[in-house]
Amino acid sequence: xxxxxxxxxxxxxxxxxxxxxxxxxxxxxxxxxxxxxxxxxxxxxxxxxxxxxxxxxxxxxxxxxxxxxxxxxxxxxxxxxxxxxxxxxxxxxxxxxxxxxxxxxxxxxxxxxxxxxxxxxxxxxxxxxxxxxxxxxxxxxxxxxxxxxxxxxxxxxxxxxxxxxxxxxxxxxxxxxxxxxxxxxxxxxxx
Length: 191
Fold this sequence. Notes:
Structural class: mainly alpha
Number of helices: 6
Largest sheet: 2 strands, antiparallel
Low-confidence stretches: none
Order of helices and strands: HHEHEHEEHH
Oligomer: single chain
Number of strands: 4
Radius of gyration: 17 Å
Strand content: 5-15%
Helix content: 40-55%
C-alpha cells in the first residue's frame, strides 16, 4: 500500500500551542484538504476488487467510504509506557483501552475527517470554517471546526472521526460515516 501519512507540521497539543500557531495550523489544515482527499482517493483506488468508491461529495460516497475504511482498518497494542502515561495524566484511576488504531489508520481517519469537512461545506452553503480561540476548556479549542449549525454547535471533523475510529477498535461499523452525517444533519437543525 503506497500512502503518504498525514504529518501536520505542528504538535497538535492545542492547549499548549500559541494563538499564532493555532491560526497557522488552521490555515495549513484548510489549504491541505484537497491534497489529503486526493491522497485518500489514490489509496482507495489501489485496493483490488474494490467496488468503485469515488470521493465526489455525494451521499453515496459517504456510504462507500465508510465500508472501504472497515476493510483497511488496523489496530495495534498500546505500549506499557503509553498506558502508564495515560493513567498518570489524571487525578483519578481509569481503564485504558489496550488496543488503538495504528498510525496509518489514524492518518486515514484524519483524511476522512477532511473529506467530511469538505462534504459539509460543499453540500450546505450556510456552513463555514471557524476556529475557537476563546474557550480554552473546550474540546474544540484551537481546532478547525465547521460553524453555522443551530444552537451555536460546531462540528470538529478531525475529532469526530478519531472518536469513531476509537469505537471501531472493538466493533467495525461500515455505516459509521453516513450515520454521523445523518445525525448532524437531522439533529443539529441546519440554519
